[in-house]
Design a protein that fits this description.
The protein has 509 residues and is an alpha/beta fold. 37% of the residues lie in helices and 20% in strands. The protein folds into two domains: 275 residues, Aldehyde Dehydrogenase, Chain A, domain 1, CATH 3.40.605.10; 180 residues, 3-Layer(aba) Sandwich (Aldehyde Dehydrogenase, Chain A, domain 2), CATH 3.40.309. It is globular. Bound molecules: NADPH dihydro-nicotinamide-adenine-dinucleotide phosphate.
Length: 509
């Protein structure tokens, strides 16, 4: 079934946008542009259908060259030994260059991913801010000392860069997600190999040029484009890689951890979520409605943090869902280049098909679609903001990540039921609680097993606060004051002063 709203895009805006960047891009290995073996991956804008970029289809050989370059830069180069002040200076320069090129970067992310330009602009601003935060942490990185072990013993715990880091990122927040990893790894003194999603590589490749312009030495950051099984997989198994920092689906994350086990790499995994927004009758309803719509439809729901499960106190369910349906109908779906657009295009035809299948299966299991439920008429890939109700917690749509503009509604009667429902999936990335009662808000927040709990807000973020998931939403945390430490090893120094007590029995005894 097609929802009969026709989406049109503006060809003039598109032409203007396309003039800002070259169609063809190269990989970035060992401080130079590398074309690969000739085969390219073409990326069409999911909103406009036109080819916007072509990137090399890198192969395992390219991944290996990039890893070798990073290894050399780490083992024999100056970056791991650079002063924190010099490393911070490079990171700050990168932030300034991101600011300088913000419009080009925002347009690249918009055209490749289909996200609204207004949102892309704020993501790029956010990315620059994270680079600045990482620069501040670079100068704060320190170990520990123990002067309390007795007069002849001194303990020091050094923080050293872990080595070569594989950074693998998804398509939904291209520049933002690489910026949650790379600046912290560089701040620690690591060397990196980055693989963006083959659908959204351009802003990461552009970042590579900015890193060089900022003075990052050759080989310290390499960027390889291509498909996961060809380029990503060797980055998880190569013995010269010390750590993997991955964001993506739980299934691929699990495979990456398994692949890395043979060489026992450190892993940091940011994976999926099925995040509850728990709403009580005493909440500020306007604010909760606004946040529920934002949580469900921001980035067209293609967001690990999407508030894709609305848990409503039974007494307010009907009224709340009626209000949410109004907002779903008002959310402007359309041309991602239009600054008024709130919901852009879906990443690919395949993915749009999967979203529709999720909704269809839910209907077949007895769920009811209150609004939306199908793609919109267009030459591009657009899905109507959707609300699914009459949902049982055991249904797939209540447990699995849909990764589209689809929210399910469930109801509860008591605080205990609300907590149990919130915890009823295998994920644990984030949650929100809406109540003016401090006991309810804090009580539910503490009962929920999730890496982030928002109280009377949704999806607020700042680099100072750590981010990551419980359960199958991930391993480890990004951002926050420990973000640089995550890319270090601890080395214990045990120093003895003065004469040692002999291990041997005294001679002649
Ligand atoms: P995928 O897991 O499919 O891909 C993520 C990255 O892994 C891509 O670069 C992909 O390459 C690569 N990859 C694929 N196969 C392998 C492999 N065998 N070895 C190594 N790397 C591989 O995720 P999507 O790109 O589809 O992104 C959507 C998912 O990401 C959602 O499930 C979402 O929840 C999650 N996500 C989680 C976030 C978090 O912070 N928790 C944030 C954003 C997204 P290729 O693209 O070529 O397949």
């Amino acid at each position: 079934m097609n929802v009969r709203i026709k989406i049109a895009v503006d060809p003039v805006k598109l032409n203007e946008a396309m003039k800002r960047f070259p169609r063809d891009r190269a990989m970035w290995i060992d401080g130079r542009e590398v074309a690969g073996e000739g085969e390219t991956i073409e990326r069409r804008s999911p909103a406009h259908g036109v080819v916007v970029t072509r990137v090399p289809r890198g192969r395992a050989n390219d991944a290996r060259r990039a890893i070798a370059s990073a290894r050399k830069a780490f083992d024999a180069g100056r970056w791991p030994h650079e002063t924190a002040s010099n490393r911070a200076r490079v990171l700050l320069k990168v932030a300034d260059l991101i600011d300088r090129d913000r419009e080009t970067l925002a347009i690249l992310d918009t055209l490749e991913s289909g996200k609204p330009i207004a949102q892309a602009r704020s993501e790029i601003e956010g990315a620059a801010d994270i680079w600045r935060y990482a620069a501040s942490l670079a100068r704060e990185l320190s170990g520990e000392s123990y002067a309390n072990l007795g007069p002849d013993r001194l303990g020091l715990v050094l923080r050293e860069p872990i080595g070569v880091v594989s950074i693998i990122t998804p398509w939904n927040f291209p520049l933002l997600i690489v910026s949650q990893k790379l600046p912290f790894a560089l701040a620690a003194g690591c060397a990196c190999v980055v693989k963006p999603s083959e659908m959204t590589s351009a802003s990461t490749l552009h970042l590579g040029l900015l890193l060089a312009e900022a003075g990052l030495p050759e080989g310290v950051c390499n960027i390889v484009t291509g498909y996961g099984p060809e380029v990503g997989a060797p980055m998880t198994t190569d013995p010269d890689v010390d750590m993997i920092s991955f964001t993506g689906s739980t299934a691929v994350g699990r495979a990456a951890v398994a692949a890395s086990a043979a060489t026992l790499k450190k892993v940091s995994m940011e994976l999926g979520g099925k995040n509850p927004q728990v709403i009580f009758p005493d909440a500020d309803m306007d604010a909760a409605l606004d946040a529920a719509a934002f949580g469900a439809y921001f980035n067209a729901g293609e967001c690990c943090n999407a508030g894709s499960r609305i848990l409503l106190h039974a007494s307010i369910a009907d009224e709340f869902l009626a209000g949410l349906a109004v907002r779903a109908g008002e959310a402007k779906v359309g041309d991602p280049l239009d600054p008024e657009t709130r919901v852009g295009a879906i990443i690919s035809a395949d993915h749009l098909g999967k979203i529709e299948t999720h909704v269809k299966s839910a209907r077949e299991s007895g769920a009811v679609v209150r609004t939306g439920g199908a793609r919109l008429e267009s030459n591009g890939l657009f899905m109507a903001p959707t609300i699914v109700e009459n949902v049982d917690p055991s249904m797939a749509i209540a447990r699995e990540e849909v990764f589209g503009p689809v929210v399910v509604a469930l109801t509860f009667e008591t605080v205990e039921e609300a907590i149990a429902l919130a915890n009823s999936t295998s994920y644990g990335l984030s949650a929100s609680v809406w109540s003016r009662d401090v006991d309810t808000a804090i009580g539910v927040g503490r009962g929920v097993r999730a890496g982030t709990v928002w109280v009377n807000t949704f999806m607020d973020g700042t680099p100072e606060l750590p981010f990551g998931g419980y359960h199958q939403s991930g391993v480890g945390r990004e951002l926050g004051r420990n973000a640089v430490k995550d890319y270090t090893e601890e080395k214990t120094f045990h120093v003895h002063t003065g004469p040692r007590t002999s291990w041997w029995l005294p001679r002649g005894a």
